Amino acid sequence: MEARTRPASLLDLVGSTPLIELSRLTPKPAVRLYAKLEGQNPSGSIKDRVAQAMLDAAEASGELEPGGKLLEPTSGNTGIALALQARLRGYPLTCVVPSNVTAERRRLLELYGAEIVDSPGEEGSNGAVRLALQLAENDPTYFMPFQYANEANPRAHYEGTGAEIVAALDRVDVLVAGLGTGGTLMGAGERLRESFPDVVVAAAEPLPGDEVMGLRSLEDGYVPPILDVSKLDRKLLVTNADAIAGLRLLLDREGVLGGVSSGAVIQAALRLADELDEGVLVCVLADGGWKYLSADFWDAPDVESAMESSVWW
Amino acid sequence: MAAVRIPPTLRAEVGGARELDADGTTVAEVIDDLVERYPPLAAQLLQDGDLAPFVNVYVGGEDVRTRDGLETEVREGDQLILLPAMAGGS
Question: Is ipTM beyond 0.85?
């Protein structure tokens, strides 16, 4: 009999998330849908993998030393994940957050011990990135992991998310994940291609409401340095209303309470499943629905307008 | 004829319109038609004969960069969506 091992702390529980089959959701029996439940990570999202990998790498390289302080632009999950890591490792953390994120996210960040700096809500994540880069430049004692440009982000998904999927399945034809920093798609996509060379790596991305696109010009746009769009095989736009429809379908059919991006991933997966006669699709569901309970979209007669002024993923 | 959805950042260049009709059977032709009518759009949408890095164009809900780029086919009644590239990832 094997010796029983007990995790020494929450940090030992990052990753190794469950993969379940969505047999009640698949549109045809010969197309097998699977979901990687990243909401099962200790702080509730896939970002635990990224936060842990970025801080491990920074400590190993000496960029982050005892007494250091952390800064990160984040509208939620990365901040919450970093806050958990920072607390257990003993670093103070400041998060730059668009002012219009949900109340739960703000409250969670505060409870986990992060200090919050607001960036203009109408500038979305781009505004948070811009302000954080400014703050870091003005105060060199900050260490900014910066998930958008940190190679430890995709590496966490290459070594973790992707490797776990490869270990769990003998065949994968399509990988679907939400596009944010690009970390999941780049890292897990690369790992899957090594084992399944013909795998289609597909991104689901949000169609943002007008109010969160208030950039002054297209030059204010942002493509994360870790994202190489040429490595994506498909890139599907999902409206907020479709994402919520996907979220409800996932809950109604499979009992999985996912976040907004999970709903979008399900919608994209169903579109791709439609093109297949048979095959295996894996959906990476980045977080659970708990952080969205205060949102208006659940009962809104017009989901699109209830969601257009916020950043959802 | 395709309907082109214009993001807020580009509306000043097109007299405030949220959506415009444009002719063309490929993305390149549709953009050419728009640029002919609204010349300032050229500098925003195109760079060195290709799509500018911070603009995303979608046909049928899919980014043309993962289809045939500017040569992506546009069928009668398709909707084109222009969007600025934005940081995500929460």
Answer: yes
